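debug: dumping io for the single-chain case to check the tokenizer round-trip. Nothing else runs in this session.
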Amino acid sequence: HTQLIDGVIHDGLWDPYNNSHMGICAEKCAKDYNITREEQDEYALMSYKRAQSAIENGIYNNEIEPVEIQQRKKKKTECTTSTTVNIDEEPSAVQLGKISTLRPAFTTDNGTVTATNASSLNDGAAAMVLMSEASALELGLKPLARILGYGDAEQDPVDFTTAPSLAVPVALKNAGLELSDVDYHEINEAFSVVALANMKILNLDPSKVNIFGGAVSLGHPIGMSGARIIGSLCNVLHQSSDASIGCASICNGGGGASSIILERMN
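debug: decoded output
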């Protein structure tokens, strides 16, 4: 017999050191930081509502490049049709009223993490252009932002959920800034508890974090989320006339995290 292995779970969502799904790590985080099921559900609801509002108001138009998809013909005599994808699909697919009714996804023993207060699995793609100031001037380009500093940090793999709280201070130090200098944060919402725990540790104002929604509501395509949150952070800074400094941070499954500090360019 041949055994089939889900590559997404095996390569992206499994903790090989503790041989468990990363959802179990999220449950540990919730227990360690006393974050309840209700708090996670409330955060997920907020993430969805923020994303839905941002889409409705065209906030994401600056981030998304419309893609035209040719539809398959059901019959040879039918004309070819196409569909244009210009918004993220997940925010409109959720049934908000059912968020609090879902069963725990990873443990039945007083579990708190569900399919809805965790990030959804999605396909996605992102592209970015990184260049030196000299190259931008030579080409006559106007950068969206400049990198002031970045940093990485790591700890026990089972505690990867809170590694961003270690990476952010490193990035800030390299940028020569204080946490109070940051106007807005993007923290990748691998799980609602990730955002909640890191906000608690860093003492962040929730109204300044993931203000247009995050991975819980938009999705977390493995391999592109880092680029996505940087693009979203640039968008946040340009949408907010009173903001100039932003911080993006993301955890990874090996117990590490990365963070970057951006300054909006006019």
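debug: round-trip ok. The chain has a mean pLDDT of 94.
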